């Protein structure tokens, strides 16, 4: 199979995690989005995925699967192997199965709430500073839910790394790369969760290229903004 991906992108990372956990050998084709035009909008790639988005998974029989959250269950169904554990409980284990599905759906919340913080990359970000500060506070509040889940079990939906972790972990790891300090905000269970995830070879293997060092700290910038606002209110 072949996976078209963008390095460091949360949706691509999810799929790479699942492939790595399942020990599926695959051809990884990196597409660049900083080029003009973007490689995701080439005629050749649009013929495979007309939306021009990654991840795009092309199976050995030609089946094309788009959307990270559709690719995850596809892999779970079609790539079972003796070498790896299932990433989803049996449907007959009603409670565990339901929790996994719920967590996968819930991953949308931190992703959406965090999004305005990325406006800091724009040259005229100051115009959006109120939205950015709001997103910063909301992101921390949202992470409170995940902190609670991390206290309940070793991984987000149970004692093993599963599809819910494939869906969620890249969001958290992405925020950390952007300067989120978990301990600083009292998220000690999430910190332990991250360390647990990073203890898994498959998780380390799926880490984006060049991400050994932290990236540009958007969270530090947010915090300066919050402090400045607090100062001006005094
Ligand atoms: N909902 C999609 C999102 C995919 C997506 O937005 N991918 C971005 C990278 S984060 C992309 O390929 N962008 C390229 C472009 O817009 O040309 C999924 O979960 O797979």
Quick rundown:
The chain has ten helices and four strands; from the N terminus they run βαβαββαααααααα.
What characteristic shape results from the CA principal axes? globular
Number of DSSP E strands: 4
Biggest sheet details: 4 strands, mixed
Classified by CATH, the class of the largest domain is: Mainly Alpha
- Give the CA-CA distance, first to last residue: 59 Å
Derived from helix and strand composition plus strand pairing, the structural class reads mainly alpha
Summarize model confidence as the mean pLDDT: 95
Structure explained in plain terms:
It comes from Hyaloscypha variabilis (strain UAMH 11265 / GT02V1 / F) (Meliniomyces variabilis). Belongs to the GST superfamily. The chain is mostly helical and 234 residues long. The chain has two domains: 2-78, Glutaredoxin (3-Layer(aba) Sandwich); 94-233, Glutathione S-transferase Yfyf (Class Pi), Chain A, domain 2 (Up-down Bundle), CATH 1.20.1050. The protein is 51% helix and 6% strand. The chain is built from ten helices and four strands; from the N terminus they run βαβαββαααααααα. The chain has helices spanning 10-21, 43-48, 68-78, 94-106, 108-114, 129-152, 163-177, 188-198, 201-205, 218-233; strands at residues 2-5, 27-30, 56-58, 64-66. The protein has a four-stranded mixed sheet, covered by helices on one side. α5 (108-114) packs antiparallel against α6 (129-152), α6 (129-152) packs across α8 and α6 (129-152) crosses α10. The protein is globular, with a radius of gyration of 19 Å. It starts with a strand and ends with a helix. Residues 6, 9, 11, 33, 38, 40-41, 52-55, 67-69 line the site of glutathione (GSH).
